[in-house]
Amino acid sequence: xxxxxxxxxxxxxxxxxxxxxxxxxxxxxxxxxxxxxxxxxxxxxxxxxxxxxxxxxxxxxxxxxxxxxxxxxxxxxxxxxxxxxxxxxxxxxxxxxxxxxxxxxxxxxxxxxxxxxxxxxxxxxxxxxxxxxxxxxxxxxxxxxxxxxxxxxxxxxxxxxxxxxxxxxxxxxxxxxxxxxxxxxxxxxxxxxxxxxxxxxxxxxxxxxxxxxxxxxxxxxxxxxxxxxxxxxxxxxxxxxxxxxxxxxxxxxxxxxxxxxxxxxxxxxxxxxxxxxxxxxxxxxxxxxxxxxxxxxxxxxxxxxxxxxxxxxxxxxxxxx
Length: 321
Hints:
The chain is α+β, with helices and mostly antiparallel strands. It folds into 3 domains: 2-72, Uridine Diphospho-n-acetylenolpyruvylglucosamine Reductase, domain 2 (2-Layer Sandwich), CATH 3.30.43; 79-205, Uridine Diphospho-n-acetylenolpyruvylglucosamine Reductase, domain 3 (2-Layer Sandwich); 226-318, no CATH class. It is built from 8 helices and 15 strands. α6 (226-246) crosses α7 (252-263). The radius of gyration is 21 Å and the shape is globular. The mean pLDDT is 92.
């Protein structure tokens, strides 16, 4: 067990441009499943509050966030391969297991090839992309429950919703120790071709993994409010007219985006969004924390679905008033 004291939250955060004054009094880094089980069991038995993290690729730590105890699962990463399933410890990287599955000729993971984060966190948040979902491939997961018992939980037990589970919604306390994934045999070359296709599409349409937490909101489709419809309609008409008069039809989306932010009086915000995607925010500099909440306010004005997919640690109420 590796133990670190008085750690800046910034040092364990996925984001590099968040000035974080918060502190972790004690950070526990178990090196295997047994050490993870022991430390979490001790906390549960003594009713001690603690934070559990993986790679933090879906966690936004607010600047004032601090905690006394934190446990990292990132070094808990053993695997056991069987004929028709594999048992994967919670800290195994999703990217790693997806590559392993593809190279061994097992389908269902080709869309997860570049998904950051750990397997445990992927189950916790019901992660998925490109028609592939970790939950669809999960047979069961072994969990340490809040009462200190170890139970095998299934999809129904986790009450799965879009990018959410009962664990993420804090409906009960448990730590995912390992996940059993099904093995479905397929053609290796076809799987590699699909994985390459999804990888190239991701590179064209999404930012890289640095300085962002993936999709901010859990809704897969942005549904405009009445105000949003009006602003988007005005921007589309404006972009069309500009493209006609300038004889340039290739930059209509850029013109539309600029118009929207001019209407919203938020020109200084557009640099923090990836392209025209209102579901990807880039923490690109030290102002990003301030700009994120301005972005969220405008998102609520423009769109109906504002439920966070990312997990936010800290007092969110002071920012969403």
